[in-house]
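Format notes (please read before filing issues)

Several people have asked whether sequences and structure tokens are stored in separate files. They are not. Every record keeps both together, in the order shown below: the sequence lines, then the token lines. Line labels are part of the format and must not be stripped during preprocessing.
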Amino acid sequence: MPAYTEQPTTHEVNVEEYDKVRSKLRELITKKRALDKNLNALEEQIYKAEGVYLEDTTAGNVVKGFDNYIKGSQTKKKAGLNEQDRIFSMSSAIFIKVKMKEDDDKN
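Then the structure lines:
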């Protein structure tokens, strides 16, 4: 006579499936948080490097053009850094949101 094995009920199968999906979701959320943290660090690094570039190249750069550089104007005056010149940083909608929130928190 064949041995009788008890089949799991539909409820038990659903609970098992739910636990698997919940575990996978937690794993994915953890990965997303790590990726978001990495993205924020990279965007901050780009922001700082971009600022250094714009401050160090007042005579000519890819944003303002090289007219002053070609004319020989080598004055190293520190012009106010215009946030609109940050073409790389401003290309990230998330980074703009973060910066706006930081500015609001300062005021």
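For reference, the curators noted about this record: The two ends are 81 Å apart (CA to CA). The chain has a mean pLDDT of 79.
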